[in-house]
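Re: pantoate structure - here you go.
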Amino acid sequence: MTVYSNLAEWRAARSAADFPGRRVGFVPTMGALHAGHHALLERARAECDFVVLSIFVNPTQFNDAGDLAHYPRTLAADLALAGDLVDAVITPGEKELYPDGYNYRVTENALSRELEGVHRPGHFDGVLTVVLKLLNLVQPHRSYFGEKDWQQLQLIRGLAGTFFLPGEIIACPTVRDPDGLALSSRNRRLSADARVQATLFPWIMENSADAPAAAGALQAAGFAVDYVADRDGVRLGAVYLEGVRLIDNVRL
Ligand code: PAF
């Protein structure tokens, strides 16, 4: 595994990695890797010849400065978890990835304004912009994204289609702890008591008759509810527990 913090060096290595028939797989992340990321990397390893992981805590997708400040940064542990699954890791600096200071950006005007977008203005502009940059830098044949971020996944698919980006966007199932909580880098910020309570989030989402009933039950269980909505056969929700924001979705 080679770690590239310098984008010029990475781009030179990427050109050298190109030869016919060699499939490049890509897993973009913000680090704080867990078993969910591990599953994405395993799939990329199984399906591709050269696997690239990016680790970049993208400031433009945080609308809450506190959330950005508290986002876990665990590079050494991340590299250990990625281990033999990856050939290259890119860890660009903010100035290098945003040489224009974020003057140029990608905006989607429909889905990105709903659900998460209502509560996190500008979030998806940041996500789509950084994903476009990363896809251009890595030029993957296949990129792997988790279904936990359902809205993000739809928007990235839209980005790839709209801008005729080469390469496939591959959706991978949400990985859950045995008690049902979807894995997230933010889970580690929950106290032991809140972690137990968090189990109710997917359970209520799954077992409520409709979205308003789920929202009511979550509130009664002590969650601060941002939204619960049923859409395209999926129930999507976002809640706060101890100030930690959790999102999830279940198929109806
Ligand atoms: O899902 C994430 O971790 C991030 O939104 C992504 C896709 C790496 C962009 O920063």
